[in-house]
Amino acid sequence: MTDSTPPTDETPPPEAPAAAPQPAEQPLRLDPRPARARGAWRVWAWVLGGLLAAIVAVALAAAGGAYVVWNKYLKDTPQLPPREALFALNRAPAIRFEDRYGQVIATRGPRYGRRVTVDELPPYVAQAFLAAEDRRFYQHGPIDVQGVFRAAWINWRAGRTVQGASTLTQQLAKGLFLSPDRVIKRKLQEMLLAYRLEQVLTKDEILEIYLNRIYFGGGAYGLDGAAQTYFGKSASQLTLSEAALLASLPKAPTRLALNRDMERALARSRLILANMRAKGWITAREEREALEDRPFLSSVGQDEGDFGWVLDYATAEAVKVAGPNAPDLVVRLTIDPLLQREAAETIRQTIAVDGPVSGVSQAALLSLSSDGAIRAMIGGTDYVESPFNRAVQARRQPGSTFKPFVYAAAVEHGVLPTDIRVDEPVKFGDWAPENYGGGYRGPMTVEQALMTSTNTIAAQLGSEVGGAAIGELARRFGISSLPETPDLSVALGSYEVNLLQLTAGFQVFQLGGIRLEPYLIESIGTQGGQEIWAHPPPAAERRVYDQGHASIMVRMMEKVVTEGTARRAEFGRPAAGKTGTSQNWRDAWFVGFTPDYVTGVWVGNDDERPMNKVVGGDIPAAVWRRFMVAAHASLAVSDFPWLLDDPVAETKPDPRNGFYETLAAEFARTASEREDAGAPATEEPVN
């Protein structure tokens, strides 16, 4: 009987089929291949981890370095102005200079011409500048990395700097925003500014600003200004040879200015034409024709003649007052044109006649009226040949011309002209000053020692008052180049000074102890008639030296002119001064004054080559006399109105003074006879 009862939950499931037999359990085995994989992974993990750590370290170091560089060098980098302002940024004003009488001396300053674009110029014009400054301008970024490595390699092989790597954009950044100082800060800021410029300007725009702002010498700024100045035409009319010649100038615009050194500029333009030919910008025929086409210069500006040194000095002073973005200016100077020309002619003729025999090639003269106004300033024999202003920029040893300041300090400490000192061998530590020509005169008065410029007594007086007192008095008199406590050699003028400060220091004696700041500019105004600045009158009397002491000094220095080392300077009027000669006859000076003018003269050589034993009483005194005769031609003879009588010694005189004075007079008479017979002057160059 078949059971048909349906299955229930309790019904057991059908029996599962028998499982396949399992193999016997095998023992555990270590597979060597997975082990090697895991070891390699560990190695790579260490390598990658180290590499990542190195990258992080380098990144942190770079970030730290960048932070240091930013804060030390780049934080104060100038910001870019708006685009249009770049064409006028730091534009120097044009200046019309007038003499003390209001007559125009010269018009100086930038000649900008009109603004030009690259599109309106013949292609070779822009190419000439690229050939001169940056041949890969359109191929590289703000910094030419390839050019940097190339320049580094060339300079390394040469062992010196023979090639730079600044791009045209870098040069523009430097010219617009930075100083020309060759320091790392300026170079880094230049790179940053170049990058910023190329972020906001196209290459063509950068080139246009460069062409419109670059300096070409001769007062010409911008391509059109240079084309008008040198060739009398617009920039769009330039020939290839003219373009190459102008492109040669920005590298050294003052030295290569076409009105100053045409031949050197032409030599550089030939290299530029060769570069253009090598780049394929011009053909061989065009290069040849340009080489044969020597540009003809139009009349270049106004001849400044003997006023060049004055205008250089006045331009710098005027821009300080008016600011770099000032409008065009009118500057009234204190210069007397007749005295300026007389000074220039005197120096030129004297050096031409006496220079070859005396071994003198340069001279300078500076003259102040009694109110401190500079009436004449001659910085050399020829401004066109050498614009270096030796009256202001050169610092040389004054030699014995400095002795009046030593004597002035001694007088301030109670020394009188009649006091006796002995001219004899002296030694202060390792320093043993000697007199010129050797020999000693024995006892003499302080006044006689100044008249004859006796070194040993000047050194004794310097020792008595001390270097600190001499330095302090010199600073009171306006001579700022001395250290606070000069050593004893200051008594013989061993510390360098310039002619302007030395002459101004003598003016304190001229004015009876009152100091005035020398000045060259009377007033500054705009060409529209608006006054910007005027020289202020002294707010109050600035007395830096006692009037009685000044009287003593002036009377002693008068005898230097009438009886002492400066007799060649005497010209029939009350005058006082002091001669000076530096070590090994490298410099010779005479600074002297009348009630109306104080004038200083220096002669020597720029390379400090010794002269043929020229002393201050020779050429400098003769130049001074000729100039002062002309300066006083229309003036009445007058004496110093403030002079006081010489003081009378309050103490009982030394009974030996009479003997000393008689003996000193005999020495002086013998020295005078020797000098008249042709013996060398008594003035001693610094040892």
Automatic annotation (TrEMBL):
Residues 17-27 have a biased composition (Low complexity). One of its GO terms (cellular component) is outer membrane-bounded periplasmic space. It holds the Pfam family Transpeptidase. Gene3D superfamilies: Biosynthetic peptidoglycan transglycosylase-like, DD-peptidase/beta-lactamase superfamily. Keywords: Carboxypeptidase, Cell shape, Cell wall biogenesis/degradation, Glycosyltransferase, Hydrolase, Membrane, Multifunctional enzyme, Peptidoglycan synthesis, Protease, Transferase, Transmembrane, Transmembrane helix. Residues 1-30 are annotated as: Disordered. It comes from the Bacteria. Residues 103-276 form the Glycosyl transferase family domain. Signal peptide: none annotated. One of its GO terms (biological process) is proteolysis. Pathway: Cell wall biogenesis; peptidoglycan biosynthesis. The chain crosses the membrane at residues 43-70. Residues 370-597 form the Penicillin-binding protein transpeptidase domain. Residues 12-100 form the Penicillin-binding protein N-terminal domain. InterPro entries: Beta-lactam/transpept-like (IPR012338), Glyco_trans_51 (IPR001264), Glycosyltr_51/Transpeptidase (IPR050396), Lysozyme-like_dom_sf (IPR023346), PBP_N (IPR031375), PBP_transglycosylase (IPR036950), PCN-bd_Tpept (IPR001460). It catalyses: [GlcNAc-(1->4)-Mur2Ac(oyl-L-Ala-gamma-D-Glu-L-Lys-D-Ala-D-Ala)](n)-di-trans,octa-cis-undecaprenyl diphosphate + beta-D-GlcNAc-(1->4)-Mur2Ac(oyl-L-Ala-gamma-D-Glu-L-Lys-D-Ala-D-Ala)-di-trans,octa-cis-undecaprenyl diphosphate = [GlcNAc-(1->4)-Mur2Ac(oyl-L-Ala-gamma-D-Glu-L-Lys-D-Ala-D-Ala)](n+1)-di-trans,octa-cis-undecaprenyl diphosphate + di-trans,octa-cis-undecaprenyl diphosphate + H(+); Preferential cleavage: (Ac)2-L-Lys-D-Ala-|-D-Ala. Also transpeptidation of peptidyl-alanyl moieties that are N-acyl substituents of D-alanine. One of its GO terms (molecular function) is penicillin binding. In the C-terminal section; belongs to the transpeptidase family. This is Penicillin-binding protein, 1A family. It comes from Caulobacter segnis (strain ATCC 21756 / DSM 7131 / JCM 7823 / NBRC 15250 / LMG 17158 / TK0059) (Mycoplana segnis).
